[in-house]
Amino acid sequence: MTKKGIAVIGSTTIDKIIYRTGSRFKIGGVTLYSGATYSRHGISTRAITNIAGRDSRLIERLENQRIFVCSGRTSQTTHFINDIRTHKRSQKIPARAASISRRQICDHIHNVHVLHLGPLHPDDIDVRAIHALKSLDLKIILDIQGLVRKVVNGNVYPAVSPQLGDTLSVSQIVKANKHEYETMLAFFQSDLVTLMRKFGIHEFIVTAGAAGGFVQEATAAAIPYDAAAAKFEGDPTGAGDIFLAAYVVARLIEQQSIPQASRYAAQLVARQIEGNYIKADELSI
């Protein structure tokens, strides 16, 4: 195991995936998909999350992936419904765990050099915890997905959270998918490079599924990357979390170039969609 520890912060979820042919329940969330990717690369990985006592099987699933779990108190675990019967998927969050607190994070980041923030919804990580990160000398990674959505009666809609700016300001590598990226730019009424300079972001990754994506540096031209071809179209759940963690491993730990890191991350995503990376029996609950 490398001496560099990574803490993944965000929801661990009970996911219901609805396919054209039926549905199934499995563990999900950034702690699982990004956490497992880090641990599989020999990195000491911990998950800072909130899981209800009655759902302790989720902790067992994370521990099976060699992830050390730091779970706080909550009356319920986050539930997520992902309907992928069409290309225009719909999402619901019918139940949400308690917000991850400032104290919870500060108590569990000793010997950690990187924080990976993966909020699933705007209240996933308490804003006071985000403010506390400004004084820490840590590399911070952010997936903005939960900060560009709102939850109304369990339904998920695009909307920018008031704490997006605060969270961007503590992050050095940031990821968004194409729709999240467009929502963010429309909210700030700004181009990406200007935003990166304003918030001190070093690299911004924009993913677009089968269309590939690009990585923007604040001081250079955008670098495009191609998606890796999957042998067949499977379940894309968790693909973004795996991409970002694989990119971070290649870029920060292995010191690869941006084209090399994005190519490697795309290859792992293709394996996941094929069902050959984090396999179905490892996810079932």
Write the layout of secondary structure elements.
Elements: E1 2-9, E2 13-19, E3 22-28, H1 30-39, E4 43-50, H2 56-64, E5 67-72, E6 78-83, E7 90-95, H3 102-106, E8 112-117, H4 127-133, E9 139-143, E10 149-152, E11 155-158, H5 164-168, E12 173-177, H6 178-188, H7 192-199, E13 203-207, E14 213-217, E15 223-225, H8 239-253, H9 258-274, H10 280-283
Parallel strand pairs: 1-4, 1-8, 2-6, 4-5, 8-9, 9-12, 12-13
Antiparallel strand pairs: 2-3, 6-7, 10-11, 13-14, 14-15
Helix pairs in contact: 1-8, 8-9
Largest sheet: 9 strands, mixed
Q: What is the mean pLDDT?
A: 94
Order of helices and strands: EEEHEHEEEHEHEEEHEHHEEEHHH
In terms of per-residue confidence, which ranges show pLDDT below 50 for 5 or more consecutive residues? none
- Write the CATH homologous superfamily: Ribokinase
| Residues in helix, % | 25-40%
Widest sheet: strand ordering: 5-4-1-8-9-12-13-14-15
How many domain modules? Answer: 1
Distance between the termini: 28 Å
Indicate the proportion of strand residues. 25-35%
Shape call: globular
